[in-house]
Amino acid sequence: MLFNSIDFLLFFPLVTAVCFFLPFRVRWVWLLAASYYFYMCWNVKYALLIALSTLITYASGLLIHWRRKRLWVLLSFASNLAILFFFKYFDFFLDNLTAALALAGIAFKRPAFDVLLPVGISFYTFQALSYTMDVYRGEVEPERNPFRYALFVSFFPQLVAGPIERSKNLLGQLYERHDFDPDRARDGMLLMLWGMFEKTVIADRLALLVDYVYDHYAQLPGAATVLATVFFAFQIYCDFGGYSHIAIGAAQVMGFTLMENFRRPYLAQSAAEFWRRWHISLSTWFRDYLYIPMGGSRKGPLRKYLNTMVTFLVSGLWHGANWSFVVWGGLNGAYQVAGALLRPAREGLSRTLGIRRERPLWAALRTLFTFCLVDFAWLFFRAPSFSAARGMLLHAVRHFELSALPGQLFALELDAPNFLAALFFLGVLLAADLLQERYGPLRPYITRRSLPVRWTLYLCAVLTVLIFGIYGPGYNARAFTYFQF
Predict the structure, then answer these.
(1) Could you read off the pLDDT of 145-159 as tens digits, one per residue?
(2) Which of 245, 279, 319, 395 is the catalytic position?
(3) Residues spanned by the domain of 350
(4) Does the annotation count 319 as an active-site position?
């Protein structure tokens, strides 16, 4: 069930209304049933996997509290990661094993094996594993009620694409009484509306051009690849940011607070800052459960750089079973290492030239440079394979042909009105991010206006989504990009 579908438009109000109608002591049971129903709308069999992951981590939490803590942590991680490996990486492993053996002159007939990737498995696996580690570290008490813990793992707003919640935040909220709060519900619905705008009006519109160019780049001027890659940067931001905003808003309507997942990432002035703003729940997960346990920055600069590279390479592989994702992660890690190594030289050059780094022009140049680095890496993220990404880069360099692009621009699946609409709504997005960066959240400003002004803005926003949103035949919803991870 997609957030941007008619099914969810019926499902969410019904679940929320029944939840507040029921006595407090049984609301969590209703939410657990609704969450499993939500997940089983993709495939009923998927529920067995999430239930297995839930059972393993629930039992490990109790056993860790009992004795032999490290043993149970290792078993919990090993079993959950084994499940994740089998469903997400087994085909990738077989493909690379076959290729490696072929290089060694050994013939290996790859068995016919096609594993269906369960939606959201990477997200709920990491959420469950964070609970195991939090119990081990003594940061939370083990949950005694297996079904309430099951709700923590399967809570439907953030189940399939995050934010990856921590037990310290969400598990305790499942015991708190949340009565209906009109102001809270209004703010949550405004956040959901903004997420729908990002997804249907911007992301799905840009996807038309991006998909076409990435599928036909060899027949197009290289400048089209550059344009499509810039558009993809905003497509992935609005697609994933839109999901996160809808998830956080939906939880807020029901009285729950989920962690922030995006903080205007394309306004970052360095690669390190970008990753403090982008997919925050995953970035902090890798920081807390991989980077810091490996030693973080505590064992000298060389070890710090190695830990950074390992973390980002693993992060790349987490996103998908493809070497292009590993390259994407490696590039982002290399940006951070290079930035740290070059920091003394940059600061010295700034002092020599009398450059004031806080000046708006200099800040804008740093932001633009950071965006270019991030966007170059996005090409590997979006390309279907590393060889395809390499081919696209070579084609873009050899056949850039900028002068040929205007003549083909409106034949790239976006006609002139839709192309101009894309630019206009990107301007709206950028303006909103800049205003929030300077003045803070815009929702309080909107909600303080008079009743006629507020409802005029609400109506205009809804009509914008309905009129300018991109929908398939019969208003078929387009899946969110991160569902494949």
Answers:
(1) 999 999 999 999 998
(2) 319
(3) 204-242+259-484
(4) yes
